[in-house]
Amino acid sequence: MSACVPTRATDPNRTERTHPPHSPPPTGPRRFRIAGADVSASIAVFLIALPLSLGIALATGAPLQAGLVAAAVGGLVAGRLGGSPLQVSGPAAGLTVVTADLILRYGWRTTCAITVLAGLAQLGLGCLRVARGALAVSPAIVHGMLAGIGVTIAVAQLHIVLGGTPQSSVPDNLRSLPAQLAQVHPAAVSVSVLTLALLLLWPRLPGRAGRLLGKIPAALVAVAGATAVAALAGLRLPKVDLPSWSNHALAGLPEGPVLGLVAAVLTTTLVCSVQSLLGAVAVDKLVAGRPGLSARVGRSRLDRELLGQGAANIVSGSLGGLPIAGVAVRSSANVHAGAVSRNSTMLHGVLVVIAALLMVPLLELIPLASLAALVMAVGIQMVSLHHIRTVTRHREVWVYAVTTLGVVSLGVLEGVALGIAMAVGVALHRLTRTRITHEVSEGVHHVHVRGQLTFLAVPRLSRVLHLVPHGADTVVELDGSFMDHAAYETLQDWHKTHTAQGGTVEIAGRHPGTRISEPQAFTSCRCRPWTPWLNHQCDRPQSAPHSENDPDGTDRSEPDPTGPGGASGHELARGISAFQRNTAPLVRSELARLAREGQRPSQLFLTCADSRLVTSMITSSGPGDLFVVRNVGNLVPLPGEESGDDSVAAAIEYAVDVLKVRSITVCGHSGCGAMQALLSSEPGGTRTPLERWLRHGRPSLERVTDDSRAGGRIAGRAPEGAVEQLCLTNVVQQLEHLRAHDSVARALREGELELHGMYFHVGEAQAYLLTEVDGDRVFDHVRAAGLPA
Q1: What's the cofactor (predicted)?
Q2: What is the pLDDT of residue 292?
Q3: Is the pLDDT of residue 130 over 90?
Q4: Nearest alpha carbon to residue 55 among 100, 88, 86, 87
Q5: Confidence label for 410 from pLDDT (cuts 50, 70 and 90)
Q6: β-sheet bridge partners, residue 665
Q7: How far is CA 775 from the centre of its chain?
Q8: Does residue 290 sit within a domain?
Q9: Who is most buried in 158, 285, 331, 553, counting CB within 10 A?
Q10: 425 contact partners, CB below 8 Å, separation of at least 6
Q11: What are the beta bridge partners of residue 325?
């Protein structure tokens, strides 16, 4: 054993081993290899990035070469250093409005310097590890910002599509649009319409040929097709003009007012960072949808992604390129094309460099109207109907609308500021909005308070409480989780006055039937719905200091649990009270829905009656999720008249045939008393009800001693003793008993049902799922990511 383990040599003249003696000799330096999937994915991304980079540069008014520089740097620098391996960075449509405004105000060289400063700011934010904080921005603000940018892009590019020149702002573009429509350039319009038609129809080609041709990016087909038609028809149109790289303008010293430059850097930093971080999160969701890829690629490291984006912006600005951010279109294309590592992103950057150096004559054939149509389509797509429906459903449409209108009419930074102000206003409105109603039912006055009780709701609360007549029976239902001091004083004073006048008050949602108590601090309370009664302290009255009569300090404020009327009554009542106070307000609406619609569980969960197994806790399930059957030993009697018990069979039949469950799980557990009793039972002993029931577990006992029939084992270790071995084997055996039931067998044949085995180790709080490895049944850990590997 020791010969195989490298050890540090004690003799200075002895050579230290660097590898075990039985391993093969080193074969030299490891070669760098690129997976074929990364190569094909990089080509697909390159074909999308090339026309879009030129189109975005055209939309900003920057030199067209700046788009190619940004695409190359985004692929090479951000792709190598970023924390999201499969996200593709480059010139983004979301930065078009910001960059165009900067070029108009400060010129191109100063804009490049602003890009460099924004990259330095991103490096600082990455070092401060604030990337997660950027995701706290309301999605309604982000989507509203992108929608406003999309509208601005589309309106500006519409002028180029019509053969004209765009103005500096959306209002100016809208005012000049009638004059532009009166001077339409037919050639430009025809090329633009052809580009849009190809862009729209290419992904929808029918048949097998359509599926094959659909793999070619629609953006490339649209621009290439329009270019070919324009060249063959001899149309005279403004085309791409790429000056010599020797005349390419680089960054210069920033010139302009200091406050204006600071605002420009902050705006660029904000838009670049938020778009890149949200893009990284979106890429993680795409990766999770590809089986096996998430374990190989891993989740995005957002702080590293911010550092990578900052470095890319520094390089791009220094080389005269556009600002860089993560691009959703290219990233999704990268994932869908099968990329498996960051090599695809970097290789796409290499291809952009090759195209910029060797394909200049070909690129200069592209009409500007075709690129403008392409970018206009991208801008229109940024106004997502799905996002509008989502924010409307969450009642944040005003935040979305204010942000969009602010970006369109004022600018990106101003629009985002308006959106944040609107979001804060909506949040405050929700916090202070409290609904207080009063109704009379069967002589009892019900006052229902929905929402948080703060000083702002005190006038309405007082007005409603004074509608209750003196001496009336009253129920006050509090559905909020917070009550400030003003509301507490108001409710307490009314409570005292009303009871003094002969009335009764029941407070629902707190301690029913008791006086209102001061709000308590729960920072030291560790009680949860699953905390055992033995450990619950929050609901118990504080015991008085012990006196000479109880020198041991025993808490005499509670009845002795072992005496008459002890825990059986008081603990149950306290538990129900805690449920009514804490949990019922949270689940009332869901239970009301289930009461209306009926139960539709997806799984039958058959487990032991052991009090230590809390099924909802170990499965993280809620009301309506599991149809649970519990019995001693989690046994499934074989069907037939000789079983003598139909309760389990009836539950199985009802779950499969009536409830249409999709899976059945048999769950055993460690230290099962039924299995211990089964091991110590005598053959033929059926004198007591427990012995008669345990006879259904005898096939499991026989299976343990039968070497020809596979039982169960735990991955990584052997079962701890005969009891655990029988517990594991019993799960496997009961699954076979399940298959003997007609309803289960029929559903299995039709592919409508799955069977699962599970083992819960009580002492370790660890769940194991039954899998089959090389013909053996193995209970493997349920890892954080989900099912066993």
Answers
A1: Zn(2+)
A2: 65
A3: no
A4: 100
A5: confident
A6: 605, 756
A7: 36
A8: yes
A9: 331
A10: none
A11: 90
Q: Which residue has the tokens 């400060």?
A: 106
**Least reliable range by pLDDT among 129-138, 278-287, 313-322, 597-606:** 129-138
- Among 563, 561, 590, 585, residue whose Cα is nearest residue 574: 561
Distant-in-sequence, close-in-space partners of 456: CB < 8 Å, separation ≥ 6: 432, 434
Whether 311 has a pLDDT exceeding 90, the answer reads: yes
**Chain CA centroid to CA 515, Å:** 43
pLDDT value of position 17: 44
For the record, the structure tokens of 492 come out as 């307490």
**Are 470 and 377 members of one domain?**
no
pLDDT in the model for residue 294: 64
pLDDT digits (tens, 9 = 90+) for 63-114: 888 999 999 999 999 999 999 989 999 998 778 888 988 998 899 999 999 9
Q: Compute CA distances 610 → 89, 370, 674, 691, whole Å.
A: 55, 71, 9, 17
Tokens describing residue 235: 């149309």
Number of compact structural domains in the chain: 3
Task: Say which residue, 646 or 557, is predicted with more confidence.
Answer: 646
- Annotated ligand binding at 672? The verdict is yes
Residue located via tokens 């890829």: 293
pTM higher than 0.90 = no
Three-state secondary structure string covering 82-132: CCCCCCCEECCHHHHHHHHHHHHHHCHHHHHHHHHHHHHHHHHHHHCCCHH
Which structure tokens are listed for 29? 């330096």
> Are 390 and 311 in a shared domain?
yes
336 appears as a binding residue in the annotation: no
Q: Is 608 annotated as a binding residue?
A: yes
Same domain, 470 and 616: no
Task: Output the CA angle 376-381-383, nearest 5 degrees.
Answer: 110
Lowest-confidence region among 265-274, 373-382, 548-557: 548-557
Query: Is 215 within a domain?
Result: yes
Residue appearing with tokens 């979106």? 282
Q: Are residues 223 and 360 in the same domain?
A: yes
Domain with 198, as residue range(s), is: 36-423
Q: For residue 531, give the amino acid letter.
A: T
Burial class (CB in 10 A: 0-12, 13-18, 19+), 582: middle
Identify the pLDDT of residue 609: 93
Top pLDDT among 772 and 658 is at 658
* Token pair recorded at residue 216: 């070619």
Q: Which residue has the higher pLDDT, 291 or 664?
A: 664
Two tokens at 640?
Answer: 């037939």
Q: Residue 75 class from Cβ within 10 Å (0-12 exposed, 13-18 middle, 19+ buried)?
A: buried
Does 672 fall in a domain?
yes
Residue 600: both structure tokens together: 């539709």
Looking at residue 397, its amino acid is V
**Helices vs. strands in the chain: H and E counts, helices first:** 32, 13
Residue pLDDT, tens place only, 450-464: 877 888 888 888 899
Burial of 43 (0-12, 13-18, 19+ CB in 10 A): middle
Distance CA 703, CA 667 (A): 18
Q: Which of 10-19, 114-123, 196-205 has the lowest mean pLDDT?
A: 10-19
